[in-house]
Amino acid sequence: MNNPVDSIRAASCADDYDPNSMPVAKAREFIARFLSPVAVVERVHIRAGLGRVLAEDVVSPLDVPSHDNSAMDGYAVRFSDLKADGEVTLKVAGSSFAGVPFQGAVKAGACVRIMTGGAKT
Q1: pLDDT confidence of residue 16
Q2: What is the C-alpha to C-alpha distance for residues 64 and 16, in angstroms, rounded to an integer?
Q3: Is it true that the peptide bond before 23 is cis, omega within 30 degrees of 0?
Q4: Is the pLDDT of residue 117 over 80?
Q5: Burial 6-45 (b: 16+ CB within 10 A, else e)
Q6: By CB neighbour count within 10 A (0-12 exposed, 13-18 middle, 19+ buried), where does 110 fall?
Q7: Distance between CA 31 and CA 38 in Å, rounded?
Q8: pLDDT tens string 63-100
Q9: 74-77 and 91-96 as β-strands: parallel, antiparallel, unpaired?
Q10: From CA 65, how far away is CA 119, in angstroms rounded?
């Protein structure tokens, strides 16, 4: 007969660990045994909030940054330059750095390197 695992440490340190051995639903039930909901709301100074959970969303009254930007590095390409069934080589016409849009036009056969935070024109 199997003994139930009574701690997360015991479950995570099993010598015969198999990533497929516990279904997600069962894992969620197991994890839920170690959680307790936050039932009290406190208002604290912003510096005292480190390590705490927000009771409600905080929404900025203004957009920060004030422009659309890239969430990650990549390249801006013209869809019409792409091939449906193969690779294509494009010339890098320039770059857009954080907060700075590319000032030129993306011509046929070209692309623009976009850095994280790169601004849209």
Answers
A1: 60
A2: 49
A3: no
A4: yes
A5: eeeeeeeeeeeeeeeeeeeeeeeeeeeeeeeeeeeeeeee
A6: middle
A7: 16
A8: 877 878 888 999 999 999 999 898 999 999 999 999 88
A9: unpaired
A10: 9
Please state, in angstroms and as integers, the Cα–Cα distance from residue 75 to each residue in 36, 82, 93, following that order: 45, 13, 11
Q: Are 101 and 82 in contact (CB under 8 A)?
A: no
Who contacts 83 (Cβ-Cβ below 8 Å, separation ≥6)?
A: none
- Residue 98, token pair as written in the block: 């954080």
- H helices within 24-102, ranges in order? 24-32
Look up tokens 């080589």; give the residue.
89
Taking the chain, what is the end-to-end CA distance rounded to the nearest angstrom?
66
Phi, psi of 53, deg, nearest 5: -110, 135
Residue that the structure tokens 């869809």 belong to: 79
Give the H/E segment covering residue 11: helix 8-12
* Placement of tokens 């909030």 in the chain: 49
